[in-house]
Amino acid sequence: MPVIRKVVRGFRDPSVTQIAKRSRSPFRVLVSTVISARTKDEVTGAASERLYALASTPEEMSRLRITSIEKAIYPAGFYKTKARTIKKLCRILVDEYGSMVPDEIDELVRLPGVGRKTANLVLTLGFRKPGICVDTHVHRVCNRLGAVKTKNPTETEFALREVLPKRNWIEINDLLVMYGQAVCNPVSPWCSRCGILRHCGCVGVTRSR
DNA sequence: AAAACGGGGGC
DNA sequence: GCCCCAGTTTT
Question: What is the pTM of this model?
Answer without folding.
Answer: 0.88
